[in-house]
Queue: 2 jobs
Job 1
Amino acid sequence: MSPGLRWRKFVSGFMLTMTGVCALVSVSVLFLILGYLVYHGGTSISWNFFTKLPAPVGESGGGMANAIVGSGKLLLLATLFGVPVGFLGAIYLAEFSGGTTAFVVRYAADLLNGVPSIVIGMFAYSLAVLPFKHFSTLAGGFALGLMMIPITLRSTEEFLRSVPNALREASMALGASKWKTIASVIVPAAYRGILTAILLAFARVAGETAPLLFTALGNSFWSPGWNQPTASLPVMIFTYAIAPYDDWHRQAWAAGLVLLGLILVINIVARAILSRGIAVPRA
Amino acid sequence: MATTTTTVPSAGPVAGWRSFLSRLRQGDEIAQMITFLFAASVVLLTLLLVFVLWQGSILPRHKFGFNFFRTSVWDPIFDQFGALPFIYGTLVTSAVSLFVAVPLGIGAAIFLAELAPARVSDALEFFIDLLAAVPSVIYGVLGVFIVVPLMRSYIQPALQNTLGFFPLFKGPAYGIGFLTAGIVLAIMVIPYIISVSREVLLSVPRDQREAALSLGSTRWESTWKVVVPFARPGIFGSVFLALARALGETMAVTMVIGNTPTISASLFSPGYSIAAVIANELTEASSNLHYQSLIELGLALFLLTFILNGIARLLIVATSQRGRRTGHT
């Protein structure tokens, strides 16, 4: 082997090893994050965390029951707003629309998807908080729902399009109207994909903090009804982590563990649903 | 000929009306109308967003004009608003994050696409997708409790001792600041770079690699001189995507940047970013001008990420289409 070739082989082996190191470093970050959260969160989580209200400053103990319920309410509102718009919009794009309209809607959705979450918060603030002069659960749900729309819309459309045309034609040939075809053939054929899309959109907004700062704000107590500011897990994590009290830091870790656990579980479930494949053989 | 042209126009509307009725009876028109309303509402909401941002920032646009982006006094008490420190902070932290994340991310993507067996590659990609799903506030918590102390006691002193002659690494080591924010951002954007770059690299046709190898190149040479150049636009696309994400990131940056409007050559110094100042001041804006100045910052952020995302999408689509065109089927 000539020295030139040996050198080239050495460079090749070295650089390829380096790419392996890069991959290792990047993936190990996930395990570091998980490890730290499980360690710190696990030592500070307790039954009280799920059942009690936050303790006043200076007192130890307390929990985040109101934030858990608050997050649940916000996400329910977001789903009620974001999923129908995204889902029905996607049906229009995939089944009814012509080229130009579809392009415009898709473009708008992509634009909305790229908007930084803080700007979404700003938008919801000037639309749903300023006119009513108070923060509310509704405003927070609106902001989160707005973020769910583009994700649901784009992936649902993709899955609807992947349903083979032969199915549409077969149904129409039997005399079914178009909307019957959609409701009883196309959507059921793509339901795994659509479910995955909705779950991923849900998981994505479940951890959003910035849009809630201006809309749902926060609350140390229960928030009855839908028209008052409410606590939520992500905002609680933020305020507790930057506060100067050790006890609050522990609560922040515990809340972080709960939130991340929820999001990772939804992600894994969503991918598991999808990996079983779309129930229809592709044409 | 003449008779058909006279009868068709009169029969047309009637036939059209009749078929409209029959379709209506089966519900198709209604279904189309309802779904159209929802699709249109997406467009309307997006337009409304742009309108609210534009309409909401009229005052500072008229009062300061372009000087808004060139002056650095941010004083709510005297109603003086110059956004330069925030723009500087946003750009510096994003630059630091790309400096760290681009080599790491592209290296990892090359490993996943070129070297790792498909099974390993898919498994790792799964973990990387999970990493991309971790909410930013969690990265912020890790930044505050892990990265900041590490930076303060080990990394910043070490950098000062070795590279302290650069103005970049001068000044006291607070732990918080541009460098820390940049590193936390890097951790956040790496998954995006890896996932998109891997996808683009995988779309490079197989014969490109085989041709290079058959001409006697080593594995690395075929990767670096043939596959990567082929996928280059798409890889740039992934970097633009990461940049757009880094520019707009709020929570993690707010928690570790120090929230002090400064322009300093030192990366150790505390700073401020556009998103962070919006998060901290929007609900407590002291005057209408203050509020509208923050909206104008939001508008600037929106336009910047809009342009970057657009470029990224074009580059990524162009690359994967090129792969499909060149590759034989």
Job 2
Amino acid sequence: MWTLTGFKFILAIVGAVAGAVLLLAILHQASHQVKRTLTIALTFIGGLFYFLEFFIPPDPKTEEAVLFGWSLTQAAEVVGNATLVIGGFTFLLGVFSLVHIHGNNVRRRRPGWSYSLAFFAAFLVMTVFAFWKDWQTWFGGPAAPAWVNDQNLAHAAMPQDVYTLLFEGLVRNLDATMFSILAFYIVSAAYRAFRIRSGEAAVLMVVALVLMMGQVPLGMALTNWIPSDGPWSGLRIESLSQYVLTAINAPVQRAIGFGLGLGALAMAMRIWLSLERGTYFGQEV
Amino acid sequence: MSDRLPDSHRPLVPSDRTRPAGPPDYVRVGMPSPPWWAVVIVLLLLAGAFFFGPHYYRTADYWKTFATGRTVVFVLSLVILVAILRARRGGRAFVRRIPGLTAIDEAVGRATEMGRPITFSLGLGGLDIITLQALAIALHVVRLAIRFGTRVILTTIDPTLYAVADEAVHEAYTAAGRPESFNRDDVRFLSDRQFAYASAMVGLMHREQVASNFMFGQFFAESLILAEAGNQVGAIQVAGTPTTTQIPFFVAACDYTIIGDEYYAATAYLTREPVLSGSLVGQDRAKMLLLAVILLGISLVTVLTLIGSPQSLQWVKDLAGLFTNAK
């Protein structure tokens, strides 16, 4: 892979940006017919690359798919990085969306606008401390104070700086709080789902009961009197539970998996061959 | 002209006379040419790589393990492609009724009657096949809602997807002749963190008191949080996901759930477009093919077990081994 440094590195970045701007300007001026042809061609070439990377047998020694001396496996890494760069640019669009919506909330004093202020405060504080913490690593200059970037090895497990406090102490705990709500929601949803209102619901309830009992010691104790060997062992609750999981549940899951796999394959082919375009952009592209 | 009327004066169900001028929904403008050229390019490249490529390409032992899996994918792709091409030449395909997809119209109608918005979550996926299918369904809902003047709030967790969704929804409004009705704030990137996204969605549903909630795409632990929040505000909920571990949660908490390959049949069902219907027929044929292979495998293994695997039937074991060792 290329490694550029110093002036060449800066020149490459400026060149790439200028090239991208030029390309966008040309595309903006191009007719719909040209745009459409270009979209079809690029989609096909992009798909063809991954298609060949998948179908061409890899070299047994290097494990790389090679086409006429060109390693597709190595090229896939470059293409993946390019996709990440494009994704990085679109992240700014996401931030713009958030700022626009919350800015409008504050400006127009919409109900709950104070929460939008909380968004701006959190966004600002996290951005400042995240950049300040790693500024020296990325751009050089003076080291950040210990309360911004704690490099004390004694605190390696949990650095005592503001960024760690905000991320590990606040964001992660807020995530865990939302996750824990799930425990209550499972109960309320299960209550509604297991109300016996039809034959299917009754079957669901009985099977769920068998599965739950098969997983807990209390359930297993209920059928402990049945010998674990011999013709009747299949009637023990844990055996019934295993039977439901492996002989009924697993094949059904695999059958659903077959359908989903084929559906995804068909969808991928429609997109690759530009047969799906009207679904998203009926006129413009 | 009804197009120039403010939203409050616009009829909810536009008659043919008041329907905005322009192409009707789902008419494809500029159908792509048949992809036979694409198939030829692919086959030529594969043949060239095989005949002029490195020697190990032609080693039988090597191909035994590699080729079987790839051949299965290739054959299934061809079956689907042939069905698409045949469907484009004409003919109609029967698509059975899928209640979850029929309920989409009902959910949009309910939101229209109640004068409350609709939320549509595209799940946790990025710009991939699953989420693109979700976006296709979302655009159907948006197009329907535009006709009735109902607001749809579309949310994503991925900024790349946000950019595509924003443009696609804007285009849908323009195609319907109502570009002025498009509100950029109704396509939202909420957060790129799973539970931050979930909490933002829950807050949104409660604040907006949504009448209908759609959840299509990839979902994980947040699926039930979203579905229960929708249930709490009394929204009619339609969900669909290929993430099989989350289907039970949606079944328990939503009014309608789309299961398995119904998810990928959605666009064909909703639009009845020839290419999509043909693709559905192709998928069914591919499924039949897979089923036949499975039944054949079961029969062969059963017979071999019963008769004790004589040496003369070694080729049957080798054939079965190809599928077992496929990479």
